[in-house]
Amino acid sequence: MAAHPLTVGFDLDMTLIDSRPGIKAAYQELSARTGTFVDAEAAVTRLGPPLEQEIRRWFPEERVTEISALYRTLYPAHAITATKAMPGAREAIAAVHAAGGRAIVVTAKYEPNAKLHLTHLGLAADAVIGSLWAEAKAEALRAHEAQVYVGDHTGDVRGAHTAGALSVAVATGPCEAHELRAAGAEVLLADLTDFPSWLERYVAEGAEGSDGADASEAASA
């Protein structure tokens, strides 16, 4: 793969998109189809890890593969249109492109469904890689030579560090700012609306990075 001057990876759920309403609807449909109660309200507070982790809370192990496959087939009809872009998502991707870089999405979500979200919302990612979680995200980040990975979960921080990338954390998902900081995020932003200005400083400083102090204060205010 040709080297690029700047490649930034982004997580999807609760980083670029607020998929909680759509995922809630998908779980409710799953409950209706299977006759098994799934607490959709609780499930959407735990977004980030692979789907199978949540399915195991409600179904026996021998049905996890079957039920996960059913959920993924239900997902397009129930989750896509209800999902919104997170504040600053479009501007964050545009900022990477304006800096001459590439914006890729690396997510634990099933890749075809991740692509449906991005297409529906008009989020112009240069590549989408799905079904990778936490440290496994380093596989795609290394392959695309990403220098920065942006996510909302401590698993995203671990993925960035495993890849040797700078971890930029946004306090918009299930992990609070202090958890992201304790996990070792080098930069902590309140949300993606702070990302373009941080990226401008990062690029201006020759990709040496920023300690994110100002953004960290904003996130914990």
From TrEMBL:
<protein>
    <submittedName>
        <fullName>HAD family hydrolase</fullName>
    </submittedName>
</protein>
<dbReference type="InterPro" id="IPR023214">
    <property type="entry name" value="HAD_sf"/>
</dbReference>
<dbReference type="GO" id="GO:0016787">
    <property type="term" value="F:hydrolase activity"/>
</dbReference>
<dbReference type="InterPro" id="IPR023198">
    <property type="entry name" value="PGP-like_dom2"/>
</dbReference>
<keyword id="KW-0378">Hydrolase</keyword>
<dbReference type="InterPro" id="IPR036412">
    <property type="entry name" value="HAD-like_sf"/>
</dbReference>
<dbReference type="GO" id="GO:0004713">
    <property type="term" value="F:protein tyrosine kinase activity"/>
</dbReference>
<dbReference type="Pfam" id="PF12710">
    <property type="entry name" value="HAD"/>
</dbReference>
<dbReference type="GO" id="GO:0005829">
    <property type="term" value="C:cytosol"/>
</dbReference>
<dbReference type="InterPro" id="IPR050155">
    <property type="entry name" value="HAD-like_hydrolase_sf"/>
</dbReference>
